[in-house]
């Protein structure tokens, strides 16, 4: 079972997981809840539960909205194996019709990870997930970074494709690109601000992890931990946002 705390998965999730866990802890303390600090969390596009299950392990209730029945089936199985089936609920849907399946203003935190790259209208997608938040809610937004794609294609020797990423309005490298849209940190921050939230922090995710050959991590003792520490150190530095594979924005109301 994939878990943000396991080494291989951590290369892709560690930075976001640490930021998210701290944000949820702060939300619990700020709320002063009498129910033991249980938050209502919405995970849009949460798939098979890479984040939903670990969040449920913290004691929170998580609703996962995803268009894929197969992903939701895998989520159910994963939640059961982790012993959190009573705290994880999966419903079929997407951000466009979000309020057909969940209520407005019903959640303390919303995760929108890997969604904006594929929706027809990113601004509408952000507005919808923001409307799902309670007045003091927290948004965790994760999307594909423009600069990381440029660097990745260039280092692979695909120089024309790297240039195409820069020229294309959606940041695609060609017709075969599986990612429909990529963003800069400024673009994501503007979407969040326009939806009425205040940006608390921006992080670069997978700045180095996608560029380091796996054989190096397997051959060098301690290389995995060292790379994780490097990713964490670079994540908050604006200079590295422009070359990150993904960008993470943490935002709140008021």
UniProtKB/TrEMBL annotation:
GO terms for biological process: methylation. Keywords: Methyltransferase, S-adenosyl-L-methionine, Transferase. GO terms for molecular function: methyltransferase activity. It holds the Pfam family Methyltransf_12. Residues 42-139 form the Methyltransferase type domain. It comes from the Bacteria. This is Methyltransferase. It comes from Streptomyces blastmyceticus.
